[in-house]
Amino acid sequence: MAILYALVARVSVVLAEFSGTSTNASAIARQILEKIPGTNDMNVSYSQDRYIFHVKRTDGLTVLCMADDTAGRRIPFAFLEDIHQRFVRTYGRAVLSAHAYAMNDEFSRVLSQQMEYYSNDPNADRINRLKGEMSQVRNVMIENIDKVLERGDRLELLVDKTANMQGNTFRFRKQARRFRSTVWWKNVKLTVALIILLLVIVYVVLGFVCHGPLLPSCLK
Questions:
Q1: Mind telling me which residue stretches traverse the membrane in this protein (predicted)?
Q2: For the domain that residue 51 is a member of, what is the CATH number?
Q3: 138-167: per-residue pLDDT in tens?
Q4: Euclidean distance between CA atoms 102 and 210, whole angstroms
């Protein structure tokens, strides 16, 4: 999966989170929440190894995800925007006073579903490009995580590579099924076209042999 981990928090209080693989991203995400400066709205990204932590903070609500560096920026920030809207629409002002993990039982399922959608469904990126949204993401600089965390405090990111490979295998199987389906339909169309062509040739040959107008009598 391109997006491996996500959370929603008020300041440093985590309200919901979900991880799609075995990883210590949760501990690193908490460090980031405690260290990111100020209270202003922001879009920022921090890299560690071949993974990037993307952060979107709006009106005191922070949505964070960890994605593979191959995911780029548009898809992760489209995911963060989507999650922010869903969370606010679902819980409203309750987020201002909710205790830690108050929404986790319900909203972790939403995080899981949307992570799957934005990681594997090509429509996720296509829709955002058609809408022309997320243009501000182009200005988001990807900084090394040492910019926000002291080197001595930084945890080594651990990610279960097996789960990542399973996600890649799942995408490969979907692409393979789609390819086989496309090839099958092409073969069907080609077969039908050849049958029609053969019938036309037989009809023309019979017409020529039987001198056209004599065709009905020739067939008796």
A1: 190-210
A2: 3.30.450.50
A3: 555 556 666 666 555 555 555 555 545 455
A4: 87
